[in-house]
Design brief:
Blueprint: E1 2-6, H1 14-18, H2 44-57, E2 60-64, H3 70-74, E3 85-91, E4 106-112, E5 129-131, H4 145-155, E6 162-165, H5 172-180
Parallel strand pairs: 1-2, 1-6, 3-5
Antiparallel strand pairs: 2-4, 3-4
């Protein structure tokens, strides 16, 4: 199976964090990776194209996003049990405060489960809610190792599957994926 984890620059936040040229001249100056085309990720159509590309190229996939972009993704996706796409929740009990009155303690994760791995007998039972603090790697948006394992389990990962980390970011997802080949 071909699986993919996509953690793109969040809609409406790309230029803010990566700057106009995507090379760390925003709030994310000196961040772990660069996105030379970060400004494109502030356009909803870029995220909608990502969904189309994932559907065309992978058997299963997961997309990390902000609460504010969920509605954009749902315009492209009908979520129901027949197509294997689920809206899952990463609950972050120690989320950072923001300038908003309502504190955001969760992020949606859209997951497309491969058709042959949807049934109860095709793998371990999973919760669609994951509770874990964000990684403290000095990079905003870093996913903890446990998050990567949760997403893989949601997709029904099995030894021998090919898994792509579509956006390198802090490198934490790729580091966890590299451990799969060592076990």
């Amino acid at each position: 199976m071909r699986l993919c984890i996509a953690d793109p620059p969040y809609l409406g936040r790309a230029v803010r964090w990566y700057g106009e040229n995507g090379c760390g001249d925003g709030y994310g100056k000196g961040q772990a990776d660069n996105h030379p085309e970060a400004h494109l990720w502030d356009k909803p159509e870029t995220h909608l194209q990502l969904v189309k590309d994932l559907n065309n190229n992978y058997d299963g996939w997961a997309i990390a996003m902000s609460v504010h972009s969920l509605s954009t993704y749902l315009t492209e996706i009908e979520t129901d049990s027949r197509n294997g796409i689920r809206v899952c929740v990463w609950h972050k009990p120690s989320a950072s405060p923001s300038g908003n009155r309502i504190t955001n303690h969760w992020e949606p994760v859209l997951v497309k489960v491969p058709a042959t791995r949807k049934g109860w007998s095709s793998g371990k039972r999973m919760s669609d809610v994951f509770i874990c603090a964000p990684a403290k790697l000095g990079f905003v948006g870093s996913k903890p190792s446990e998050w990567t394992r949760w997403v893989l389990d949601l997709m029904g990962y099995q030894d021998g599957d090919e898994v792509t980390d579509l956006f390198y970011g802090s490198g934490n997802v790729t580091a966890e994926l590299n451990k799969l080949t060592l076990t």
